[in-house]
Automatic annotation (TrEMBL), chain A:
Keywords: Cell membrane, Membrane, Transmembrane, Transmembrane helix. The chain crosses the membrane at residues 26-48, 68-91, 103-119, 125-149, 161-180, 207-226, 247-272, 292-317, 329-348. It comes from Ancylobacter oerskovii. It holds the Pfam family BPD_transp_2. It is found in: Cell membrane. This is ABC transporter permease. The keyword S-adenosyl-L-methionine does not apply. The keyword Transmembrane applies. CDD domains: TM_PBP1_transp_TpRbsC_like (cd06580). It is a multi-pass membrane protein. InterPro entries: ABC_transp_permease (IPR001851). The lineage of its organism: Bacteria, Pseudomonadati, Pseudomonadota, Alphaproteobacteria, Hyphomicrobiales.
From TrEMBL, chain B:
Coiled coil: none annotated. This is ABC transporter ATP-binding protein. Residues 16-249, 273-518 form the ABC transporter domain. GO terms for molecular function: ATP binding. Belongs to the ABC transporter superfamily. SUPFAM superfamilies: P-loop containing nucleoside triphosphate hydrolases. Keywords: ATP-binding, Nucleotide-binding. PANTHER family: CARBOHYDRATE TRANSPORT ATP-BINDING PROTEIN MG119-RELATED, GUANOSINE IMPORT ATP-BINDING PROTEIN NUPO. It comes from Ancylobacter oerskovii. The keyword Membrane does not apply. The keyword Nucleotide-binding applies. PROSITE patterns: ABC_TRANSPORTER_1, ABC_TRANSPORTER_2.
Automatic annotation (TrEMBL), chain C:
This is ABC transporter permease. Keywords: Cell membrane, Membrane, Transmembrane, Transmembrane helix. It comes from Ancylobacter oerskovii. It is a multi-pass membrane protein. The keyword S-adenosyl-L-methionine does not apply. The keyword Cytoplasm does not apply.
Amino acid sequence: MSDTTRIGGDVLPARRNGARRERARLVAMALLPVLGAIVLSGLVLLALGVNPVSYYGYVLDRGLLNPYGLQATLTRTGPLLLIAAGLIVAFRAGIWNLGGDGQFLLAAVIVAALGPLLAPALPVWLVLLAGLAVGALVGAAWSVLPALLKAYQGVNEIITTLMMTFLGVSFANVLVKLAFRDPATTVPQTRTLAVADRLPRLFDTTVSSGLLIGLVAIVAVHLLMTRTAFGLKLRIVGANPRAAIHAGLNVPLLTMATFAISAGLAGLAGAVEIMGVQGNVRADWNPAYSLTVVPLVFLARFNGFASIAFVFLFSVLSIGGESAARRTGVPNFFTLVVVAILLIMLGITEYLDQRRRAAGK
Amino acid sequence: MTQTPNAAPMPPHPIVALDQVTKRFPGVVANDRVSFELWPGEVHVLLGENGAGKSTLVGMLSGLQLPDEGGVLVEGREVRIASPARALELGIGTVFQHSMLVPSLSVVDNMALGGPWWSRPDRAGVARRMAAVCAEIGVAIDPEARVGSLSLGEQQQVEIVRALMRGSRVLILDEATAMLTPKGAEDLGALMGRLTRLGIAVVFITHKLNEALAFGHRITVLRLGRKVGEIAPERLVALGPAAATAEIVRLMFGTHAGTEAAGGPPRARPAGAPLLDIEGLAVDDASVPVAGIDLSVAPGEIVGLAGIDGNGQKQFAEALAGQRRLAAGRIRLGGEAIERLDVGGRRERGLRYVTDDRLGEGTVGSFPISLNLLLKQVGEAPFWRHGIEQPEAIATHARRLVGEYDVRTPGIETAIGKLSGGNIQKALLARELSGQARAVIFAKPTYGLDVQNIRATRQRIREAADRGLAVILISTDLEEVLELSDRVAVMSRGRIVGVVDNNAEARSRVGELMSGVTA
Amino acid sequence: MSGLFTEAFLTSLVLGALTAGLPLMLAGLGEQISEKAGVLNIGIEGMMLFGAYLGFLVAYATGSVWLGFLGGGLGGMLVAAPMALFCIRMGLSQIVIGIALTLGAEGLTALLHHFQFAQSYPRLPAVETLAIPGLSAIPVIGPALFDRPPIVYLAVLAVAATAYVFRSTQLGLALQAAGDKPAALDAAGVDVVRVRTFAVFSTGFLAGIGGAFMSQVGAGIFVPFMTNGAGFIGIVLAMQARGRPLWVLAGALLFGACLSATTALQVAGVSIPTDVIQMLPFAAVLMVLVLFGRRASLPPALGTHYVRGAR
């Protein structure tokens, strides 16, 4: 079923000819769904008896305008950017890595266990470096099985990565409850990394330097995919696997590499979240970031810079939504609804655009 | 061979008629004011090259497409054939070039398909009626066989029987002989004869002239979307085979093409040690295993590889190019063994492969032309340095090749999938023939191209040989093989069954080899 | 450990397997219909969840178990409707829309639950069982299998019915053709879009009832995110069963046994964290994929949009 799950080929806009009109079209195609989603989700709020204007006003205030909110938003952006970077690599290479949540969580748990263990023995920078490296490795390791099955057996990766996510989430819980449990607490959780041993904050703010790591990663991934021979090879595999074989590319090996990079970045996101924000992992903690970042990356058409904008927007919504939950009584499950509507609006926009272009020909 | 129609007195209206129909697709007018009449009891051949508009015409008769302008008449009444179901209701049954049967279902289940949802398929009844139709037209089919296990010829018979069982009085056979062996094609011709005797009207679509003359009562020739001529049954009989052939060639290729298509200037017979030497090559393959291929090609020589499609040519070409594992055998290029090298290694040493599947594997349709021209050199200097793309070098290279090979495109950044088939082929030729090429495999190089591009492509192949390259030309078009080759090898069921020098007797010798007569 | 295999333990194991396995079976059966027709239905998790919510809501409001199940089926179909519209009619990516529907159903049910029941957390009364005379007297399996709510018997009948439809009706042939060679089905005069739409709605209905079973029979309460991947297990069950409904039943019971083993072990006095047990089905699935991955056959047209006359 190789053809069934291809991810819409490559979407590089033409570089010079009509570039401006093309760009305007892409911007419109990205913004229309956002507007539509805001309006539709506003209607959902109305139906629930909440004033959407005051809700969104509060979300904007607490997620963007208020300095503490903005700092929290920027901190949240870091790990999400890493996940987005991983998804961009996978999707451009035609791989549906839907296992990001398992890769993220397992890396988070192991880093959370490792950090407090290493902290007394090593200098801070080395602990942080080791944590980041281990996070990336754990994430990548959790994708080895789907990668092998996809590369050498042709087994559909959607199914296997989802299975690995469920397996990973449960396994992470087992680790927290049985292996890495902090004996000093009653609630099962790992030992806590001291604030002094965490990723440094940026300047005088509370923004974690995880944001920088995320920005660097997503820009690097963008350049990797658009400017290098390796990125081009991955894109060829993604856009037309048979052409890749015809051109003599080692498709299984490139598939393995795609999985490793994509899952490694998800794992890195887990490490950044732990060492920058949480400090520990409580039992049954699972923010399920990966599946919610999927739509954002689609909205950005796998473009790194556009992804930064959408991830930031989502962070505003999610941080603001968490504050709003306490204040307005709308639980932050609401962001899930917004993301779902956004994704469907994206699909409709795409469909209308195709019809418009077909009619214009 | 030409027969007179066996119909009783002519009815007042043709059973199906197209009146000045026009059908446009983005960028092309596939059918331009085409008229077409079909009378009961005759085989009406629709003749034309690939891209002449035959498939579109069939699509409008069988309910896959609606005409933009003009009308469709069934027995004199204007109708709108909006779906295949409607076509069936009107008594028009179609056997498409690609099988329209469900491989995982049995023959009866395929035939029963399409009844009310909650009803049980009447398997016994279907089998009974099937047996009756089979007896009437003289074919034998096992009703319980899974369709996927039948040969293509048998699947075609199943489709014909099914169309008749549904009460079709019109049977459209779209490129029905393309996938068949010569024997299979002959059987189909005989079957068509029996069908017309039962009063059925047959539309037989083909691009092969000899079949048109052998099986048809009336011949309509299409060229570039237009109907350029029709030969009525009386005239066809009156002309006789030789004059009819001349007339059809004139219609199909225009007035000038006839002389030029008769073959290029005789080329000096190349000599010398073989440049490409293949010994005992074998490929494991589920459908057509290839074995025992011995072939050597001298510099400047064109060896044609003739044969019916699907006799292992693709497997052979892919194994040679390095896309498939060899089960056994040796390949030497200029004396060096290359069978252990991968695609890139073989290409580096000068082995090139022009695939026939231009959009499926030859190119990435959504990528710009410039990158498609470098598809097999990703990462190589000077286009990439330390893995970083060098846009200037890539653009210069692309502009040079686009100019040299006359690729008509708005720009080098245009997605290659937006170009016409002829221009995509030019880009592929540019990619494979430029640089340090020493031996080239062409797979069906003119398949699906128009006359101009066919001519241009054949010229490129000749030039490649004149430059001293060793050329293997795989083609299912015997005329093409005979026109270009120095020697002709014939492939059948995964083996080379004979190699003949291209001289006066070549045509008949190759024909014998292709139809399985080995001497 | 000799005390492990007491009658109480075995009964609770079989009973648990059935209770946990039945929703999986309904999901797998539903997914199988979609897959047969060439639709990869990732939204099934959302369909189950919405079915669980609506089933609970209706049963709570009306006090009728049967209306509850009907509501559950309708809930699943409500989520199936956008899938049919966007993927089958408009041809959007089945995976992207599937993810969207699952996320949306998760968010929406959690939201609605919060506004309606977060203060009270009402429970439904236990569902009445129907003992089958004679069979229910058999030790161990009798009370576990033959003294169950009537919906259980109906669900098992649904497996047989589906097998019958696949094998012996025009609909079955049409579904098979829609997944194997849609163009052939179209040429035979059957509307591919309609067949696939039917398949997606059937999936929604069955998955919705599966979800309602979880909330009404399994838990007696609706909890946000309560399906917890059951829909995805259904996808795997359908894949591994390769078009045979009976295999879905067998696989679902096996998974159910894994899932319920914790409770059974607790009855027997052995304590293992639920997480370990919850890993078992997924580990088993992956094991199966590792061993038989190459052989997991899927319809050729799975996940592709059908466009008439496309070349």
